[in-house]
Structures are given as C-alpha cells and as structure tokens.
Amino acid sequence: MKQENSKDKASNNSKSEEEFQVLAAYDINHVTNDVYQHNFGFKPTQTAIEKLTPAQLDKFGANTWLLSPP
C-alpha cells in the first residue's frame, strides 16, 4: 500500500521551505488516479478512504495528513 515519491520542497510565499515525502495517495476515481500518475509518477490506491482502518494509516508513521474535499 505504501507509495513513495522522491523528497520535494514546498514553498510558502518564498519565506520558508519544508521538506516532505508523499507516502500514499488515495482516490476512488480511476480517471483522477490516471491524471495523478501522469503528473506525479505513481498511481494512487483506488479506494474509498472511509474503508481505511486506523491501523492501516498508523503504519505510515506520518506526522501530517493532507486531505481535500471532493
């Protein structure tokens, strides 16, 4: 389930930079997943996030989760 991407840098108004690593991406829509793969180099897991268990998410050891509404 773990899908890694190379470390990237995010910039906030050019005042600070933070390193981050994408550990996983999830989406239920197959078209969205194809576009994500084209743009970022790996394909998200196609599933509804409400089916993920706390144990599955804890395995990543992530300190931040970014989510967006549909």
UniProtKB/TrEMBL annotation:
Top-rank taxon, per record: Eukaryota
Example of a GO MF term: methyltransferase activity
UniProt keyword terms in alphabetical order: Methyltransferase, S-adenosyl-L-methionine, Transferase
Cellular component annotations (GO), alphabetically ordered: nucleus
InterPro entries hit by this protein: C5-MTase, SAM-dependent_MTases_sf
Keyword Transferase applies: yes
GO biological process: methylation
UniProt name for this protein: C-5 cytosine-specific DNA methylase
Organism: Physocladia obscura
Gene: DNMT2_2
